[in-house]
Amino acid sequence: MRILVTGHQGYIGSVMTRYLAAQGHDVVGLDTAFFGDCVFGRNDDRTPAINKDVRDVTADDLRGFDAVVHLAALANDPLGDLNPDWTYDINHRASVRLAQAAKAAGVERFVFSSSCSMYGAPGWPMGTSRRSTCATAAPTASPRICGPTSSSTT
Question: Are 108 and 66 in contact (CB under 8 A)?
């Protein structure tokens, strides 16, 4: 299977690409390289890469892939607090556009992943319904799941 991994140079992506390749998949990464030098261990990943901002991906970029594993995001509180508009643009708008572009390109599988910050802070009630107030543990998580009218409770 030919798989595109967005955010492949980040915390999870730098491990994910190696895992998928070891399983026999043809893996290509897509990353801006904001965190390209922040990998655990040696930085010897040889994954073929598209150096592009996830906000700029088009259906043409995705043609020929069987799956997209979407990990790209601004992923920590200081970044989320620095400019909430950038965070929302990357973590929500770009994710929606990427899914739409993947569908338009005929990509059959789209895996949307995030971090544990999506699920709230310790001590918060478990489980929410579709009508629940969106409460995430980090400002970078809220735009990924809550949409434009919600805010983080941190």
Answer: yes
Mind listing the pLDDT tens digit for each residue in 89-126? 998 999 999 999 999 999 999 999 866 665 555 555 55
Is CATH 3.40.50.720 the classification given to domain 2-145?
yes
Global confidence as pTM:
0.77
Output the DSSP codes for the chain: -EEEEETTTSTTHHHHHHHHHHTT-EEEEEE--TTTT--SS-------EEE--GGG--HHHHTT-SEEEE--S--SHHHHHH-HHHHHIIIIIHHHHHHHHHHHTT--EEEE---GGGG--TTSPS---TTSPP--SSTTTHHHHT-TT-----
CB 109 within 8 A of CB 65: no
154, 138 contact by CB (below 8 A): yes
Query: Phi, psi (5° rounding) for residue 69?
Result: -105, 110
Q: Is the CB of residue 35 less than 8 Å from the CB of residue 41?
A: no
Domains of the chain by residue range = 2-145
Alpha-carbon separation of residue 90 from 26, 98, 141 (angstroms): 26, 10, 11
